[in-house]
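User: Predict the structure for this protein chain, please.
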Amino acid sequence: MDERLCIACGACVILANCFNNTPPSVAESPPSPGPQRSLRHVDKRGFLQKLAEFIHPGPDSKDELIETLAEAEDNDIINAESRVMLEGVLRIADMTAGDVMVAAPRMDVLSIHAPYDELLHIVIDTAHSRFPVYDGERENIIGILLAKDLLKLQRAPELNLRALLRPATFVPETKGLNDLLREFRGNRNHLAIVIDEFGRVAGLITIEDVLEEIVGEIEDEFDEDEDEGDIFALADSTWRVSGDTSIERINESFGLKLSEEDFDTIGGLIAHTMGHVPKRGEVHEVEGLNFVVLHTKGGAVKWFKVMPRVAET
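Assistant: Here is the predicted structure, written as structure tokens:
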């Protein structure tokens, strides 16, 4: 008898919580003379749905929602790629342009007064499709040059570089990535200059930077395959180095004496030393060399740009 009584009491509690959802203000208000149609649509959930939501309530926070996605993957409801993308969508909701931008000192920019050969050299070495162009000071951005438009100068040297520039878009550091992505898609502009609170150039951000926060690194036709090599000498006496390059090969190539006991790759060593997941544009010094993060994927550095450290004066 006691067991059945407990079950009955438990059922009453469940039913009371499921169906007693009418706000006190509604329950205590006298019937209005107008139509009551709205009250009939307060809650159309069925008993089983209410019971299920009472027993297994939905997530109350973003962290709980991410845990729910992980459980869905464990239960083969969604695959790993879908989970990563959904988590990326949730993540960018709280991120701003300042979180993702390439910092101003690491921006590849072109001078409006540079000769054609110098411009072509930078375009080939960096493999970007769009470049901020400045006049005088680096912070004085006057427009954006598409790499493909540079070919017009080769065919017609009398052309003025200014005539080839596209208008530059400026956004604050606090610009939300959700809003920025919407604007990128709406105006078909894929690059924006990021401005700090004092109106100075803080960096730049591209639509690719935003999308990579959702889907991971987006490779294009300029990205070398991993099996094509791991260290590339560039024309400006710097190197492009894969994050998967072994410590042994780094030591041999650059004459370093890094320990090979704790880490196998240069990417793993630098990430551990920095104490966090490296971000694009960050710089880490290793025995007199600066390792600049060019690309990351899945929390690991895929490519560095390596250059001698400039001595401070």
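The two ends are 89 Å apart (CA to CA).
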